Amino acid sequence: NLDTALLRRLEKHMLVDLPSPVARRELLRSYTAPALHKQNDFEQLIKETEFYSGSDLKQLCKEAWMLQMRQYIAEKDNNSRAKPPELINSLDLLKTAKKSILPTTKHLRGKYRDWESRVK
């Protein structure tokens, strides 16, 4: 919640809603390897992240990438020529990360929509 004194000083009030399925797809595509984009599970992940904000999606990808880096570091000793991955290369990593990164605003969506209708 923003302070009412601060809100009075803002000329415009607008709701920045949660990302659409198209926006979620593009956000996830920017953090994942192209080979994953054609998998059925990729589309399922887009559906499962319906209530995730842009920040939540970024945090989800960051956690998946950290899991991937831990795997890389553990395996690097065996193969010193392996390059560190730049993009997430496994949907399983995203699914694992999703267990700990939950949507932060799901329970507030109705409240925000009510607010938007009042300030229009």
Shape: elongated
How many discrete domains?
Answer: 1
Percent of residues in helices comes to 55-70%
Count of individual helical segments: 6
Notes on the structure:
Keywords: ATP-binding, Cytoplasm, Cytoskeleton, Isomerase, Microtubule, Nucleotide-binding. It holds the Pfam family AAA_lid_3. This is AAA ATPase AAA+ lid domain-containing protein. It is found in: Cytoplasm, Cytoskeleton, Spindle pole. One of its GO terms (molecular function) is ATP hydrolysis activity. The protein has 120 residues and is mainly α. The protein has a single domain, classed as Helicase, Ruva Protein, domain 3. Helices cover 57% and strands 0% of the residues. It is built from six helices and no strands. Helix 2 packs parallel to helix 4. The mean pLDDT is 88.
Quick recap of the structure?
It holds the Pfam family AAA_lid_3. The chain is mostly helical and 120 residues long.
Keywords:
ATP hydrolysis activity, isomerase, cytoskeleton, ATP-binding, mainly alpha, AAA_lid_3, 120 residues, single chain
SSE blueprint and pairings:
Blueprint: H1 4-9, H2 21-31, H3 40-48, H4 54-76, H5 91-98, H6 109-119
Helix pairs in contact: 2-4, 4-5
